[in-house]
Design a protein that fits this description.
Length: 217
């Protein structure tokens, strides 16, 4: 496929997948319309780079559909001044989009394979990529004004919540009894609250399973 083909696919994504589903922040629409999503998927799958579906990556991971990212970034109400952390960088696509919306982005990834590939794509954008356990976040870089957990999780660990600045926000997809709900959490005055706002498909992330309660067998 040609560069013109991919450009047309990006335009169609913005028009039919984002604008029609509540992604109405002009800055988010512009960023997602500019970043070449096909660059962040395996070469064999680039023809489907803009499909509204999970796109397989290496090591059993996947790239979430565009709508999920667009809605999370819209609901985050970013101003452009934030220091941001992307947890579960994967191929680097979400970090590349976010870099157009905030002042600084750090990306965290546990998979050496994905981290190596993403680092090459993100370094020219000035995005540092850190390798480590996703559920631990990146305390050495805290506090962050915005944290994007790029995938579906069962719960948000306190260790990550503690890395938010006062007034900071965290965006993620919450797995709740078989349903994936997009959510925004806010830290204020020592407290933390989460609001879910839409159902959407999102790729599950490793390391965020809810601890099982003890039971007698």
């Amino acid at each position: 496929m040609s560069e013109a083909d991919y450009h047309e696919m990006r335009r169609a994504m913005v028009a039919s997948q984002l604008r029609t589903t509540g992604v109405n922040d002009p800055r988010v629409l512009a960023a997602m319309g500019e970043v070449a999503r096909e660059t962040f998927v395996p070469a064999a799958r680039r023809a489907g780079a803009y499909a509204e579906t999970l796109l397989p990556l290496a090591e059993g991971r996947a790239l979430s559909p565009p709508m999920a990212l667009g809605l999370l970034l819209t609901e985050a109400r970013l101003t452009g001044t934030e220091r941001a952390l992307v947890i579960g960088a994967g191929s680097g696509y979400a970090a590349a989009v976010l870099a157009r919306l905030v002042a600084e982005v750090v990306a965290l990834e546990i998979s050496p394979t994905l981290a190596g590939e993403a680092r090459d794509l993100l370094a020219p954008l000035g995005i540092a990529l850190i390798e480590g356990p996703l559920e631990a976040g990146y305390p050495a870089g805290a506090p962050f004004d915005f944290i994007l957990i790029d995938g579906a999780i069962q719960e948000s660990p306190q260790a990550i919540v503690d890395q938010l600045a006062d007034g900071g926000r965290i965006a993620f997809a919450l797995l709740d009894r078989g349903i994936t709900r997009l959510a925004i959490g806010r830290a204020a005055g020592g407290g933390f609250g989460v609001t879910t706002f839409a159902d959407a498909s999102a790729a599950p992330l490793p390391g965020f399973a809810r601890a099982r309660a003890f039971s007698f067998s």
